[in-house]
Amino acid sequence: MLGKREYTISSPLQYVFLAMLGFCACISWSARALAEDWTISVTLLAATSLSDDDASGQDDIYLRAFITPTLGSGTPVECNFFDFHVDNDNTITPNWTCVLPQVTGGPDTTVQITLRLMEHDTTSADDHFDINPDPSANDVVISFKPASLPPSRRL
Ligand SMILES: [Ca+2]
Ligand SMILES: [Ca+2]
Ligand SMILES: [Ca+2]
User: Fold this and answer.
1) Dihedral pair phi/psi, residue 19, rounded to 5°
2) Does residue 58 fall inside a structural domain?
3) What is the pLDDT averaged over residues 35-47?
4) For position 13, what pLDDT does the model report?
5) Does residue 155 lie in a domain region?
6) Total structural domains within the chain
7) CATH number of the domain that 58 lies in?
């Protein structure tokens, strides 16, 4: 069974951003006492540009996502969905999913999930959208403990 949490992140600056985070805990146990293996996934369901600041048509949106174990062992992943982006569309519903196949640790196992929306340009560097209401940050950064999901929402 897949445990899910949904987040709606509204920014008055440039984007309304909707993401669904799906988490599941694997049933396998490592050799270490009380250590558990987790699979972490994050899916972008939809994003809408409110700024439409592309000089040529509508925006060309894509996601970069990073999932990094900050407590527990596992190899960080970076997912770049540039190759799948659609040009000239201010509203996308891509269902892009980034997966960290395994993080292993105890009940305090923690991962940092970073969501970054980009806008592709052909004559200059890609733009980095601001989807965080904090003036000092552009990306959405979530610290998540998979063990915080109630047992009924895990495998
Ligand atoms: Ca465009
Ligand atoms: Ca563009
Ligand atoms: Ca900001």
Assistant:
1) -135, 145
2) yes
3) 93
4) 36
5) no
6) 1
7) 2.60.40
Range of the domain at 66: 3-148
91-134 pLDDT, tens digit each: 999 999 999 999 999 999 999 999 999 999 999 999 999 999 99
Question: What spacing in Å lies between the alpha carbon of 102 and ligand 3's midpoint?
Answer: 31
- How many angstroms is it from 43 CA to the middle of ligand 2? 23
Tell whether 132 is covered by a domain: yes
Dist. CA 56 → ligand 2 center (Å)? 7
φ, ψ dihedrals at 123, nearest 5°: -110, 0
DSSP letters spanning 61-95: EEEEEEEEEEESB---EEEE-GGG--SS-SEE---
CB atoms within 10 A of CB 52: 11
Residue type, 120: H
* Gap from CA of 61 to ligand 3 centroid (Å): 17
Centre of ligand 2 from the C-alpha of residue 28, in Å: 44
Centre of ligand 1 from the C-alpha of residue 128, in Å: 14
Nearest bound ligand to the CA of residue 126: 2
